[in-house]
UniProtKB/TrEMBL annotation:
Known cofactor(s): Mg(2+)
This protein's GO CC annotations: cytosol
InterPro entries: dITP/XTP_pyrophosphatase, ITPase-like_fam, RdgB/HAM1
Enzyme class label: hydrolase
Signal peptide (UniProt feature, chain positions): none
Keyword Hydrolase found: yes
Lineage, highest ranks first: Bacteria, Bacillati, Bacillota, Bacilli, Bacillales
UniProt keyword list: Hydrolase, Magnesium, Metal-binding, Nucleotide metabolism, Nucleotide-binding
Enzyme Commission no: 3.6.1.66
GO MF entry, a single one: nucleotide binding
Protein name as annotated: dITP/XTP pyrophosphatase
C-alpha cells in the first residue's frame, strides 16, 4: 500500500517514511511527481492550510492524500512565526535565516520566558469523503544558539527540557516518538482504525 503526502519538504517526507514503515506503507510525496503544483497556503490556521493542501492535491490526483501544515509558536512573540514559519525571514524559505530571525527577536529574553511549541496539523482528504483533520503539539523552549545537526527546520534552536537536549540532537527514531508530527499521526491512525472497525460491523 502507498500513501501520498502532499508536501515538498524532504525533512517531513523522511519522517513520514520512517513513521509508516512499521505499517508496511510506502510513502510518496510531491517530490516524486513531475510538475506537481505549488498550493498557496492562504489559511490563517495550521488546520485550514493542511486542509487546503490535502484537498487540492486529492482533487487533482483522485487518491487519498495526507497534508502536513506545521510550525513554531513562540510565546514571547505572541505565537509568531506560527503559520508563517516557513517564510518567516522571506519567501525563499531558508531554515538558517528563519532561525536567525527568531534568535535575534528573542535576544535579551530570559529563560523562563522563552517557552514555545511545535504544532502540526494533518489533514486526510479522500475522493467523495469528508476531510478529517488532527493536531499534535510538542512543548519546549528556544535556545540562545543552535545545538545539534539532526532533523530540519527550527530543530537546532528548540530545546526539550524533559530530555535535556535540542530536537536536532535526537535521532530520527527518538524525534518520531515525541514530535508534534508523531502525536498528530497517532491521532490520524486511531481515526482510521476506528473507521475500519465501523466498516467491518456486520
Ligand atoms: O519537526 C519540525 N522541526 C523543525 N521545524 C519544523 C518542524 N515541522 C515544521 N517545522 C517548520 C519548518 C518550516 O519552517 C515550517 C513548516 O511550514 P509548512 O508550510 O508546513 O511546510 P513547508 O512549506 O516546508 O512544506 P509543505 O508546505 O510543502 O509541506 O515549520
Ligand atoms: Mg508550506
Amino acid at each position: 500500500m502507498k500513501i501520498l503526502i502532499a508536501t515538498k519538504n524532504i525533512g517531513k517526507v523522511k519522517e513520514f517514511q520512517s513513521m509508516f514503515k512499521d505499517l508496511g506503507i510506502e510513502v510518496i510525496s510531491l517530490l516524486d511527481i513531475k510538475n506537481s503544483p505549488d498550493v498557496e497556503e492562504t489559511g490563517v490556521t495550521f488546520e485550514e492550510n493542511s486542509i487546503i493542501k490535502a484537498e487540492a492535491i486529492c482533487s487533482i490526483m483522485k487518491i487519498p492524500v495526507i497534508a502536513d501544515d506545521s510550525g513554531l509558536e513562540v510565546d514571547a512573540l505572541e505565537g509568531r512565526p506560527g503559520v508563517y514559519s516557513a517564510r518567516y525571514a522571506g519567501s525563499e524559505k531558508s531554515d538558517e535565516a528563519n532561525m536567525d530571525k527568531v534568535l535575534s527577536e528573542l535576544r535579551g529574553v530570559a529563560e523562563p520566558n522563552r517557552t514555545a511549541r511545535f504544532v502540526c496539523a494533518l489533514a486526510f482528504a479522500r475522493p467523495d469523503k469528508k476531510t478529517f483533520v488532527v493536531r499534535g503539539t510538542c512543548e519546549g523552549e528556544i535556545l540562545s544558539e543552535r545545538r545539534g545537526n539532526e532533523g530540519f527546520g527550527y530543530d537546532p534552536i528548540f530545546y526539550l527540557p524533559q530530555l535535556e537536549c535540542s530536537m536536532a540532537e535526537l535521532s530520527k527514531e527518538e524525534k518520531n516518538k515525541i514530535s508534534h508530527r508523531a502525536v498528530a499521526l497517532q491521532k490520524l491512525k486511531d481515526f482510521i482504525s476506528k473507521e475500519d472497525m465501523l466498516w467491518q460491523k456486520p
